[in-house]
Amino acid sequence: MAADHPEVSLVVPCHNEAGNLSALYERVLAVMEQTGKSWELVCVNDGSKDDTLDHLLALRCKDPRVVVIDLSRNFGKEAALTAGLDHAQGDCAIPLDADLQDPPELIPELLTKWQEGYDVVNAVRLSRKGESWSKRASAHAFYRFINWMSDTPIPNDTGDFRLLSRPVLEALSKLPERRRFMKGLFAWVGFRTVSVYYHREPRLSGTTTWNYWKLWNFAVEGITSFSQVPLQLAAYLGFIVSLLAFLYAAYLIVETIVYGNPVKGYPSLMVTMLFLGGVQLMALGIIGEYLGRIYEESKRRPVYLVRSIWHSREHAKKLLLNRGDKM
Ligand code: UDP
Ligand code: MG
Question: What is the pLDDT of residues 155-198, one digit of tens each?
């Protein structure tokens, strides 16, 4: 067994997950003991407002295999996951949700595939328990739509729960983009990929921070990061509208020649104007989405900022005491 680094890194982004962490640790512990591999649990505290950090530090005191990365504020799940993967030391890494929606019991299956020589092992959801019909339907539609639009095939119904080998982690860390749609990036890097299947469980405790507005923005992020079809769509739509306008003009000319022209242009004028105005605004909006992203990327700000990292057991204990003193 390698001495200085673990074989498996489990990476967990945590945002207000105080109620789930001890259950997560217990289940991970049970599963990892079974596999006989050396491991670490990299937990990223993504600006939690509850006492997630204290729970993480307590776990860390109990078990030095728990690594805690505290971000300077809430950067969002994609950034938190990036932070965790950047700091993972293992020969492979497995991102997990803290709410136990991704069952740790699937990990041995992922590891088996890895040992067979695969670099990426996707965990595909067969069902999503405890999620509303509308969320399941919108997720279903999202995966199909983005695959239709994007040149990078993004596996259907696959979240961030998957196994990534060290070469994949190296490749991911080389991707320079600031705005990280992880599912797309995981797919973009390629490598030998295989899927295993599981049933997604409901959240253990707490509530999801993803409302429909956030999910919509996430979908727009995914589409604009991995497809230029919307830009082309704007151009095609413009072309079709112009063509229709041209045909309509021809019709008007013929009508005028044949029947003369009693003044009655108002409705057609309004319809044409509003329609064209709408199409133009839409096209501008789409261009704006991409432009905004170019602007974001051009600022070259870091994806996340780390407040502190807990490596050693003593260090974690000290900080826990300090925090206790202050409270
Ligand atoms: N999460 C995070 N930062 C955020 C929001 C969520 O790190 O700003 C974490 C959260 O703690 C959980 C995972 O991302 O471990 C998935 O979040 P959630 O369960 O809310 O999403 P859902 O499962 O509903 O898609
Ligand atoms: Mg969840």
Answer: 777 878 899 999 999 998 888 777 778 878 888 888 888 888 88
Within a 13 Å sphere around the CA of 198, how many CA atoms are in the beta-carbon half?
Answer: 22
Nearest residue CA, atom 25 of ligand 1?
Answer: 210
Report the alpha-carbon distance of residue 205 to residue 192 in Å, rounded. 35
Q: Is the CB of 209 under 6 A from ligand 1?
A: yes
Measured N-to-C along each axis, helices 166-174 and 77-87 cross at an angle, to the nearest 10 degrees, of 120
What single-letter amino acid sits at 265? G
Asked if residue 80 has its Cβ within 6 Å of ligand 1, the reply is yes
- Ligand 2 center–CA 287 separation, angstroms: 32
Q: What is the pTM of this model?
A: 0.71
Q: Which of 41, 39, 47 is CA-nearest to residue 1? A: 39
In the reported structure, the alpha carbon of residue 112 is separated from the centroid of ligand 1 by a whole-number distance in angstroms of: 27
